[in-house]
Amino acid sequence: MPADWRKSSHSAQGSNCLNVAAPTPDVIKIRESDDPDIILTATPTILGVFIRAAKAGIFDHLNDHRSTPLNRE
Asked: Could you give phi then psi for residue 44, rounded to 5 degrees?
């Protein structure tokens, strides 16, 4: 089944956007508009867990190249 890709109405008209598709109720696909061949596929449950973890700061250390989860400053 082909995906019906959508992007936020808040996104600019440029090519630096995330596109989201839900081809079936149990599958969500995400891609970057400027590299559409790479697609992340997840269930709604797993994507929800990932989003909650990101909002809680679980991945913040990945943005700081000076520290790791085992070696925080």
From this structure: -55, -35
Q: For residues 44 and 24, is the Cβ–Cβ distance under 8 A?
A: no
pTM of the predicted model as reported, rounded to 2 decimal places: 0.70
Return the sign of the alpha-carbon dihedral for residues 7, 13, 17, 19.
positive
Domain ranges of the chain: 1-10+17-42, 45-73
Distances (CA, A) of 29 to 8, 11, 62, 66, 73: 14, 18, 23, 32, 36
Residue type, 29: K
Contact in structure between 8 and 17 (CB atoms under 8 Å): yes
The one-digit pLDDT tens for each residue of the chain (73 residues) are: 667 999 877 777 666 788 999 999 999 999 998 888 999 999 999 999 999 999 999 998 887 765 555 555 5
